[in-house]
Each structure stands twice: as structure tokens, then as C-alpha cells.
Automatic annotation (TrEMBL):
One Pfam family cited in the UniProt record for this chain: PPR
GO molecular function, one term: zinc ion binding
Designated name of the protein: DYW domain-containing protein
Keyword Transferase included in the entry's annotation: no
Species this chain originates from: Morus notabilis
Any one of the GO BP annotations: RNA modification
Keywords attached to this entry: Repeat
Length: 644
């Protein structure tokens, strides 16, 4: 076989190569036939290894080091690969090596690729130095370099520099215009972005997509909707931007609406839009819509994507159906990733199945999947919510022994573990003795435990530490006020509330959501009456009368943390959002249907009692996902076993 034929065969094989193992085999064949010394093949192999193959960067680095006379293209290829990797710092090292060996003059690609690394690291100093070098070589106004500089300054939050760079480019093209448009939205200058959009000589599809992404990132959903309706053409990015954007801004009905519209238009969703709508279903607890999505995923042939399987698993878990989550996990036809295992462990933890989460963790290890830091957070969370103190401590030690350095989140799990179990002094000592400085979340976790268990003395000590770090957090003031109120220290509780009013702090309002007939309804205590709210209040009044008569209900008025008359307290707890959501569900849902509720705050004791009584008196199953965990109420008992 002559070299020309061998080279053609190698290049053809390389174009279809999808794994590092195959690349090694092609390289071996090239060495055997003498093609490996050909600069064209060597460059193509390097490019494929650095950019197209996962985990191929180290191989590409070795290829470059062994090639006798690498040219600028080869160095630029490796710089590009590193700039797009998880470790962009290596791009700088390759750039310096290229300079040191004086392979050839730096070109526009050299600067553009290494600038991208600086942008990904948000390293302003390194980018400015590169800008100076580009100036010295007359490359700063080069279209490719100039456009990359605009993006770099935007990533670093320097919109003024990005604008100056744009003004210096003599003939900006569509890519450059889109770069400065992106810079405006990335830096929060919506008005500037709108003005630029109107000035653009030519708007392509990317320009419209940038506008959409900018508006949804800023939470301006109605403006995004208007732009979307004006778009002459829409692509996959346009649809996924709206679906994911509305989901991330907690406008779940909007995300569902756009997904339905996408399907009505006869279009096939891409991976991003599909995982986006699955995420919206998960966050909203929209179980009925989730089942429809699952059917679509199977029929459309998306089950080969591990990301979609993981999103399905997460969706069922957050919709309160751990059984379906387990079924998705066990029947995955693709190889389970570490995300799959960790998501399933987290699902079991959220539902209080601590022992089962631990068994799955060991099964994961037996499958030769090495747990990472996030996996250990999930298993520590499982131990915390199941009250498994000794097991939690053991897994924390095991994590350290396996070479994973504990992060602030892991220490937070341990604080929560001790705090939930009522070992408040141990939790306090642990927080004070942590090898890394506890952050506001660490102290807030402990303050929440003090509030739950009514330990006022320790709450005050924790409060002093916490208020030094985050003095203006309204939630912390509420937790302290709650601790005082549980101990019936009304004057102290009132003083904290008064301080909040003087500082104009506002408590996050509690809301609850319920899905009925594939529509999501939201309730908030004290909201203005409308037809939906009136229906909920009417049904709730009927329910509460029946609970008093048949269930022996007595309001848990300690849940109302104000010094007011008992009658007023009873009225206050009756109007909690989760009670309204349950009442609406019982009024609208078919008999025998489970009631599933999502709440943004922790469920209070009185609502917990009411849910148990409703499940007993009415024979209905209720699932509540609050900020902390799942509560499954069946026949007068709760899955949390009243262990919060």
C-alpha cells in the first residue's frame, strides 16, 4: 500500500472516529504505514483528539510533544482544546511554550483561542496582557481577535472596554455585532442592548436568539415573549431558550405552553428543550404532565440520551413518586452515569429512605463508579433526614479517606445532621471548629435548628455570628424571631420584627402549587380573593369543620409566631397556602386521586397535623414537597415520622 492510499484511509477513518481507543488504533496504523510523519495527518489527528473526542486532550498534548517540527496550526489546535476544557489554564502554558520555542509568529487564531481561555477563567489581568501583545503585533483590530476581545471583556463584566473595542473595529461583521449585543445583556445593560439591536445593519437568527436569552436571563419574560412572536424564523435555540428560560424563572405554565406550541408546529424538540420542560415539571410537581412527557420521550426515541433519563428520574422524584424514579433508574438502557446514581440516592434521601439510599451507595461502589463530592452530599443528606448520626459521621470520614477534600457544603450537611437530631451544642462546637471558615449558610443551618428546637440562648449566640456575615437577610431575622416565639418570649420576638420593619426587610411570602387537570395553580396566604381562591377558601372551611368534628382537630397555634389572641392565631394558621392548595385539590380532583403539593417554605406544625388528619378522615393520600424534604401523608401518618 502506497503512502497516498494509506493517508486517504487514515483520514477517512479519522472522520468517523468517536473514541480515544479508535484514535489510538488509527494512529498505530498510521505509524505502521509511515503516514504519522505527514503534517496534514498529524494536524488532523491532533485536532480530532483535542476538540472532537472526550478525554482526548492529554493524548493531543503527547502527540504535539512527539512531533518533530510542530507548526502554528498544531499549537493553536491544542490551545483551542484547552481553552474549551475544564482546565483552561493549560492554554496559557501551551501559548507560552509556543512563544518560547519560536515556532512561528503568533497569528490571529493564537490570540483568539488563548483569549477565550482568559474569558472562561474571567481572568482580567491575563486578558489585558494578551490585548497588549495583540496591539504590539497589530492584531487588535483583526476581526477575529477584536470580536474575541469584546466577548472577553463582557465575561469579565467590563462593558465599557467591550464597547471601546467594538468602536475600534473598522468594519464589524454580523458576528461582531452579535458579540457586542451579547456583551450588553451579559452585563445587564438591557437598554443598551435594545438600542444596539435597532442599529444593527443586518440581524440574523443569532441576533434574535441573543435578545431572547438576554431578556429571559434578566427575568423579563413578557419582553422575551414579544421578541419571540416577532422573530421571522425560529430554530432549536429559540425554542429551548424560551422553555428553559421560563422554567428557570419559575414560570412553569409558560414553559409547558411553549413546549406544546413547539409540538403543535410539528417540530421535534432537541435535548435542551426536552430537559428544560422535564425540569419545569419537576420543579412544579406537575405529575400528570410528567407522565405525558415520559410517554413522548419513549415514543420519540430519546431514551438513548443519558441526560434525558437523568431528567426523567429527577422529575419523578421531585413530583413525589420515588417508585417511578426507581423504575426509570432500574430500566435505563444506556450506561448509568455518576449523575444517574447520585440523582437516585438524592431522590431516596429526599423521601426519607435513608437505609435504601445507603444500600444504593454501596451498590454504586460495587459497580466501580467512584463517588464524587456531590454523591457524598446526597448520602450525608440521607443520613441527616433519617436521623442516622453515626452513619453520617462514618461516611464523612470515608469521603476524606477516599481523597475528596470536604467543601463547605459537606460541613453544612454535618451541622444539619447534628442540628436535626437536637444535638445543638455539638453542632455549634462543630461549626466553630471547622477547618474552613463557616459561611452564612452554615450558621443559618444551625440557627434553623435552634429555632426548631426552641433553644433561645444558643440561637442568640449563633445570631451574633450570622449577622456579622449577612446582616440584611430577612430570613435570619425570622428564624431568630421564631426561636423567641416558640419559647413564648413575645417581647424579644416583637423587637426582632420591629427591627425588620425599621430596616424595611420583607419576609419571603409562602406559596404552594398544585397541578389539577394538567394546569398548575399557585396559592399564597392573604392574597386577593379571586374565583379560584374563593373556591379554595370555601372548600377549606368545610374541611376544617369536619376535621374538628370527626378528627378531633385542635389548632397548633404555636405555629403562629406573634403575640396575638388565640382566636386570631387560629384564623391565621387556617389561611396557610398549603391548606388552600389541598382544599382546591379536594374540590377539583377526582375521588381517589393523590394530592401533590409543592411549597417554597418549610411546612408548619399545624399544617402537618391537618394533612395527617385529612389523609385519615377523607382517606386520601397527600404528598407535600417543602423546602426541606418530602412528606407523604397516608391514613393519618407521615413518611417523615414527625422527624423534621
Amino acid at each position: 500500500m502506497n503512502n497516498a492510499n494509506a493517508e486517504l484511509i487514515c483520514l477517512s477513518l479519522l472522520s468517523k472516529c468517536k473514541s480515544l481507543k479508535t484514535a489510538n488504533q488509527i494512529h498505530a496504523f498510521a505509524c505502521k504505514t509511515g503516514v504519522d510523519s505527514d503534517p496534514l495527518f498529524a494536524g488532523k489527528l491532533l485536532l480530532h483528539s483535542a476538540v472532537a473526542i472526550s478525554e482526548g486532550l492529554d493524548y493531543a498534548r503527547r502527540l504535539l510533544s512527539h512531533f518533530p517540527n510542530p507548526d502554528a496550526f498544531m499549537y493553536n489546535t491544542l490551545i483551542r482544546g484547552f481553552s474549551e476544557s475544564d482546565n483552561p489554564c493549560n492554554a496559557f502554558a501551551t501559548f507560552k511554550e509556543m512563544h518560547r520555542k519560536s515556532v512561528s509568529q503568533f497569528d490571529s487564531f493564537s490570540f483568539a483561542f488563548v483569549l477565550k481561555a482568559a474569558a472562561n477563567l474571567r481572568c482580567l489581568q491575563a486578558g489585558v496582557q494578551l490585548h497588549c501583545q495583540a496591539l504590539a503585533r497589530g492584531l487588535n483590530t483583526h476581526l477575529f481577535v477584536g470580536t474575541t476581545l469584546i466577548s472577553f471583556y463582557a465575561e469579565c463584566g467590563c462593558l465599557e472596554f467591550a464597547r471601546k473595542m467594538f468602536d475600534e473595529i473598522p468594519q464589524p461583521n454580523a458576528v461582531t455585532w452579535n458579540a457586542i449585543l451579547t456583551a450588553c445583556f451579559r452585563c445587564g445593560d438591557l437598554e443598551g442592548g435594545e438600542a444596539l439591536f435597532e442599529r444593527m445593519p443586518v440581524r440574523n437568527l443569532t441576533s434574535w436568539d441573543v435578545m431572547l436569552a438576554g431578556y429571559v436571563k434578566a427575568g423579563e419574560l413578557e419582553l422575551a415573549r414579544k421578541v419571540f412572536s416577532r422573530m421571522p424564523v425560529k430554530d432549536d435555540v429559540s425554542w429551548s431558550t424560551m422553555i428553559v428560560g421560563f422554567s428557570q424563572n419559575e414560570c412553569f405554565d409558560g414553559a409547558f405552553e411553549f413546549f406544546r406550541e413547539l409540538r403543535r408546529a410539528g417540530l421535534r424538540p432537541n435535548e435542551a428543550s426536552l430537559t428544560g420542560v422535564l425540569s419545569a415539571s419537576a420543579q412544579a410537581g406537575a405529575f400528570e404532565f410528567a407522565k405525558i412527557l415520559h410517554g413522548f420521550v419513549e415514543k420519540a426515541g430519546f431514551l438513548w440520551l443519558v441526560s434525558v433519563n437523568n431528567a426523567l428520574l429527577d422529575m419523578y422524584s421531585k413530583c413525589g413518586n420515588v417508585g417511578m424514579a426507581r423504575l426509570v433508574f432500574e430500566t435505563m438502557t444506556v450506561e448509568k452515569s455518576i449523575v444517574s446514581w447520585t440523582s437516585m440516592i438524592a431522590a431516596l434521601a429526599m423521601h426519607g429512605y435513608g437505609a435504601e439510599a445507603i444500600r444504593l451507595f454501596h451498590k454504586m461502589e460495587d459497580s466501580r463508579i467512584r463517588p464524587d463530592g456531590i454523591t457524598f452530599i446526597s448520602i450525608l443528606y440521607a443520613c441527616s433526614h433519617a436521623g442516622l448520626i453515626e452513619e453520617g459521621s462514618r461516611y464523612f470520614s470515608k469521603m476524606i479517606d477516599s481523597g475528596i477534600e470536604p467543601s463547605i457544603e459537606h460541613y453544612g450537611c454535618m451541622i444539619d445532621l447534628y442540628g436535626r437530631a437536637g444535638k445543638l451544642q455539638k453542632a455549634y462546637d462543630y461549626t466553630c471548629q471547622m477547618p474552613i471558615s463557616p459561611n452564612a449558610i452554615s450558621w443559618r443551618t444551625l440557627l434553623g435548628a435552634c429555632s426548631l428546637h426552641g433553644n433561645v440562648d444558643l440561637a442568640e449566640r449563633v445570631k451574633e455570628r450570622l449577622f456579622e456575615l449577612d446582616p440584611n437577610n430577612s430570613g435570619d431575622h425570622v428564624l431568630l424571631s421564631n426561636a423567641y416565639a416558640v419559647a413564648e418570649k413575645w417581647k424579644d420576638a416583637a423587637a426582632v420584627r420591629r427591627s425588620m420593619r425599621e430596616q424595611r426587610m420583607k419576609k419571603s411570602p409562602g406559596w404552594s402549587m398544585i397541578e389539577v387537570d394538567k394546569l398548575v395553580y399557585s396559592f399564597m396566604a392573604g392574597e386577593k380573593k379571586n374565583k379560584i381562591a374563593e373556591e379554595a377558601y370555601g372548600k377549606l372551611k368545610e374541611i376544617m369543620l369536619k376535621l374538628r368534628a370527626e378528627g378531633g382537630y385542635v389548632p397548633e397555634i404555636r405555629s403562629v409566631l406573634h403575640d396575638i389572641e388565640d382566636e386570631e392565631k387560629e384564623d391565621s394558621v387556617t389561611r396557610h397556602s398549603e391548606k388552600l392548595a389541598v382544599a382546591f385539590g379536594m374540590a377539583r380532583l377526582q375521588e381517589g386521586k393523590d394530592i401533590r403539593i409543592v411549597k417554597n417554605l418549610r411546612i408548619c406544625r399545624d399544617c402537618h397535623i391537618v394533612m395527617k388528619l385529612i389523609s385519615k378522615v377523607y382517606g386520601v393520600e397527600i404528598v407535600v414537597r417543602d423546602r426541606s424534604r418530602f412528606h407523604s401523608f397516608v391514613a393519618g401518618s407521615c413518611s417523615c415520622r414527625d422527624y423534621w
